[in-house]
Amino acid sequence: MTTVHNLGYPRIGPRRELKRALEAYWAGRIDREALLAEARAVRDARWRDQADAGLDLIPVGDFSLYDHVLDMSALLGCVPPRFGASDEPVDLDTYFRMARGRAPSGAPADACEMTKWFDTNYHYIVPEFAPDQAFRIASEGLFDEVVAAQAQGYRVKPVILGPISYLWLGKMKGGVDDRLALLDNLLPVYGQILYRLGALGVDWVQIDEPALALDLPPTWRTACEAAYNRLQGRGPKRLLATYFGPLAENLALACGLPVDGLHLDAVRADELALAADRLPGYKVLSAGVIDGRSPWRADLAVLCERLAPLAERLGADRLWLAPSCSLLHVPVDLSQESGLDPELRAWMAFARQKLDEVVALRQALAGEGGEALTAASAALAARRASARVHRADVAARLAALPPDAARRASLYEARAQVQHEKLHLPPLPTTTIGSFPQTDEIRTARRDWRAGRLDEAGYEAFLRTEIEHVIRAQEAYGLDVLVHGEPERTDMVEYFGERLDGFAATAHGWVQSYGSRCVKPPVIWGDVSRPRPMTVDWSVYAQSLTERPVKGMLTGPVTILQWSFVRDDIPRAEVCRQIALALRDEVGDLERAGIGVIQVDEPAFREGLPLRRADWPAYLDWAVQAFRLATSGVADETQIHTHMCYSEFNDIIEAIAALDADVITIETARSDMELLDAFADYAYPNEIGPGVYDIHSPNVPAAERMRALLYAAAERLGWSRLWVNPDCGLKTRGWPEVEASLREMVASARALRAEIGAAAGG
């Protein structure tokens, strides 16, 4: 029968067991052996799940203690010198120091950069290369996992990130950016890895090259062909895996590479027939037909009809079936969602259920198991016929919007003057991005409230106490624009999803964002509207406690869209406009309640870009318009902020300027302000707060470091439009490090104000 396999599986465990073990290790509550024991338990359970589903090949090497790209750097010995030069294997704490700047042992150091994995909400640790970068096998983790899985009786398929994508995703530190020049040093180590896997009795290895779904420059395409020609004939058979988009002009290249099989994402592109035409007769075609990024059930009957001609043409030996990409991007198991609306639940499939869908497709192509196809078709028919999905009032409101609904009344220059007169802020005003630490006490109170052990009045009183504590703390630190700290919010998107019509929340639908950080994306299943205010009471209460301005805090429409699981029956642009209109109501209510500074965060703005540049203009148009629709209904004196993180801004700076936010805060601490080059080159006209405090590391930044970053920012932008703030929200940090870091940040800003003032006076 047709081979069924999987590209990768969620790592965190069905109840986030790995997250808890990692954080316990970092905090010193458990030792290395206890961490590794818990990790093995989670890893082994993943293998059992996939074997029990009926997969023929079990992926190995997709499990990670932090990030699979970081794992590849450890395997290849690509460790920046600041973490300590050594010819020894990369140890666990060096690995964690690269990821987060600190570990139980070893000196703290600046963590490696982190950015988004293609157009997903997963973050990877950016490989850091020197011009003379050397590579070697420096970790036994992959080989140990192969041995462990084989000992448990599994037929394994090791997964490694391919050499072209690895170099593409990295960054050169020092010298000319000529990453391709590193191939000569890199490929022999890949050859050694393949040889060792073959020596372990591995039949197939999966080599991921997602960069082939991008607009690769000709030099990279040529290098890809040369690289795989050099690697041919070594080790096991190789399945080249691509995903997240069509290969387009790279399809012929991929089909012609000297590998033994090709995996295509057949959800985001329909290139299976074209690939079948071009693949030599000895090569396998792996069809990624089950959506690895969506929670919705597949239409198995339609897929079976689509695949039947390919199955007849290629035969069972050459047509493999799989999800479109790693299932890392969906929750683990729908069976845990006993509290979910039964009608909605019937429309969905999480990672474990998607394995069943792949196996059901194989059975259907063999003329067996028609019950699964019938059940899927019935569920999809019920979803299409449901009266709950579409709302006439939402459509009518959008249709009735005036032509100028997405434009502020005045240009920025006029608004800025009015805002400065109203707010009376000093030069280099200091603020934070929004959230403050989510303590154990906050989580306990929330659990007690949801379980009925704490009543509504008691929970509200608790939250008000937390908000007052955050306000008083910020006043003591000397911050200029305050926030209420968001103790009422589990997550910056889930919170709004729980309060907007058309969304559903899950109980255990966790997805890894980075390291131990997990998010629980809400599910957009119907038309979106706001039944009542969502944040106004908390912002008004916080403002009542202080004379300093308090920001109203909202998540923007594009980020709510990107960080939710989105319905697939209407265009994403239409869903985003619905969310924007709901947020417009919230922004208006905040303004009417006396909140003069409102932040609408869009950290996912660049993440939403299609992978192909030809598709960018359409996306940027509707994304910009959605943000402006949400924020443009306010008076000139209301200051609109936005926040973005983990983005390379150079190629979308015009769209960022078109957002027309009065102040933008961005994440720059790990990149030494390099991201500001785009703003300087464009002569970005509005105010900017470049992050000077890396909140994804537990290290407390030194005042000298923050001052140096601010000088670097001023060299690019001047002093007059700069704000001073952390990189991102402080939710994941502890109070002691937050207090120390913010006091240092404020002291740095005040010292620079005095210095600038003295220079101006002189």
From TrEMBL:
Its EC number is 2.1.1.14. Keywords: Amino-acid biosynthesis, Metal-binding, Methionine biosynthesis, Methyltransferase, Repeat, Transferase, Zinc. Its cofactor is Zn(2+). Pathway: Amino-acid biosynthesis; L-methionine biosynthesis via de novo pathway; L-methionine from L-homocysteine (MetE route): step 1/1. 5-methyltetrahydropteroyltri-L-glutamate binds at residues 16-19, 116, 121, 517-518, 563, 607. GO terms for molecular function: 5-methyltetrahydropteroyltriglutamate-homocysteine S-methyltransferase activity; zinc ion binding. HAMAP family: Meth_synth (MF_00172). Belongs to the vitamin-B12 independent methionine synthase family. SUPFAM superfamilies: UROD/MetE-like. Zn(2+) 1 binds at residues 643, 645, 667, 728. Catalyzes the transfer of a methyl group from 5-methyltetrahydrofolate to homocysteine resulting in methionine formation. The active site is at 696 (proton donor). Gene3D superfamilies: 3.20.20.210. This is 5-methyltetrahydropteroyltriglutamate--homocysteine methyltransferase. It comes from Acidihalobacter prosperus.
